[in-house]
C-alpha cells in the first residue's frame, strides 16, 4: 500500500473521507500522518480520534517560508510518503518543496478549474451566474490551483444558493471524488475512468 500524508488547515472533512476510504481492505493507500499548519485546525482532533499521527507546523514559529518548509520536509523524510494529499491546506508550496515530491502531490479545489482558483470560489461562481459548480482534483505545480487535472465532479447551482449552501453541496462531491482519485492514483492508474469519477448534473433556471 502506498504511504500517504495529508496536509490540512481546517475542519478536515476531506481528510476524514480519505481516512474512511483507506480503511477498506483493498484500498491501495494508507494514511500515515496528518500535517497541519494551524494548531487549532478542527481536523487534528479528528485525525487523532482515528488513530492517525498528527504533526503541527505553525508558520509563525519559523523565521521564513523556507524554514517552515524545511521543517516540514525534514518530518516528511521521516514519514516517507509516496503521495501527499492537500485537503484544505491553505498555503502555497514553493517550487523547491514541490520538486521534492514531483508529480506526487494532489490537491482538491472546490471549483471546476481553471474557473475560480484561489479564495472566495463559491461567491465568485455565484456572481458569474454559472449553472454548474463542482470540484477538481489535480496534481500540484507551482501556480495556485494549477497543474494537470485528474478528475472533476459537477453539481448544480440552485436558485437561492448562497456561498454557504453551494459550498456544502460541492463538499459532498469532494468527499466522493477525492477517495476515488486517490484509489486510482495509488494503484498507478494515471487517470480515473470518467465513468467512475464524474458526476454530471445541470440545472435550468
Ligand atoms: C474544501 O472545500 C477544499 O476543497 C478547500 O477547502 C475546503 C476544506 O474543507 N480547499 C481550497 O479552497 C484550496 N484552494 P475540509 O477541511 O473540511 O476538507
The DSSP helix count reads 7
Order of helices and strands: EHEHEHEHEHEEHH
Low-confidence stretches: 200-205
Strand content: 15-25%
User: Main β-sheet: number of strands, strand sense, barrel status?
Assistant: 7 strands, mixed
Total beta strands: 7
End-to-end distance: 46 Å
The ligands bound in this entry are:
glycinamide ribonucleotide
Instruction: Specify the structural class.
Output: alpha/beta
Mean pLDDT equals 92
Shape estimate: globular
Could you walk me through the main structural features you see in this protein, from its secondary elements to its overall organization?
It is a single chain. The chain is α/β, with parallel strands linked by helices and 205 residues long. Helix content is 37%, strand content 21%. The chain contains seven helices and seven strands. Helix 4 links the parallel strand 4 and strand 5. Helix 5 packs across helix 6. The chain is globular, with a radius of gyration of 17 Å. It starts with a strand and ends in an 8-residue tail after the last helix. The protein binds glycinamide ribonucleotide. GO terms for molecular function: phosphoribosylglycinamide formyltransferase activity. It catalyses: N(1)-(5-phospho-beta-D-ribosyl)glycinamide + (6R)-10-formyltetrahydrofolate = N(2)-formyl-N(1)-(5-phospho-beta-D-ribosyl)glycinamide + (6S)-5,6,7,8-tetrahydrofolate + H(+). This is Phosphoribosylglycinamide formyltransferase. Catalyzes the transfer of a formyl group from 10-formyltetrahydrofolate to 5-phospho-ribosyl-glycinamide (GAR), producing 5-phospho-ribosyl-N-formylglycinamide (FGAR) and tetrahydrofolate.
Amino acid at each position: 500500500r502506498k504511504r500517504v500524508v495529508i496536509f490540512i488547515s481546517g475542519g478536515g472533512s476531506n481528510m476524514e473521507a480519505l481516512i474512511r476510504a483507506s480503511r477498506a481492505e483493498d484500498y491501495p493507500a494508507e494514511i500515515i500522518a496528518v500535517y497541519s499548519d494551524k494548531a487549532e485546525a478542527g481536523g487534528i482532533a479528528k485525525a487523532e480520534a482515528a488513530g492517525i499521527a498528527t504533526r503541527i507546523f505553525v508558520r509563525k514559529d519559523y523565521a521564513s517560508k523556507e524554514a517552515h518548509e524545511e521543517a516540514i520536509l525534514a518530518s516528511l523524510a521521516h514519514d516517507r510518503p509516496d503521495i501527499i494529499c492537500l485537503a484544505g491546506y491553505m498555503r502555497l508550496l514553493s517550487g523547491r518543496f514541490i520538486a521534492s515530491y514531483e508529480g506526487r502531490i494532489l490537491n482538491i479545489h472546490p471549483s471546476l478549474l481553471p474557473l475560480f482558483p484561489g479564495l472566495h470560489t463559491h461567491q465568485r461562481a455565484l456572481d458569474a451566474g454559472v449553472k454548474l459548480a463542482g470540484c477538481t482534483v489535480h496534481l500540484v505545480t507551482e501556480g495556485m490551483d494549477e497543474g494537470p487535472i485528474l478528475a472533476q465532479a459537477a453539481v448544480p447551482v440552485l436558485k437561492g444558493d448562497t456561498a454557504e449552501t453551494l459550498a456544502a453541496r460541492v463538499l459532498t462531491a469532494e468527499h466522493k471524488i477525492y477517495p476515488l482519485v486517490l484509489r486510482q492514483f495509488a494503484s498507478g492508474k494515471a487517470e480515473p475512468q470518467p465513468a467512475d469519477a464524474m458526476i454530471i448534473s445541470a440545472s435550468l433556471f
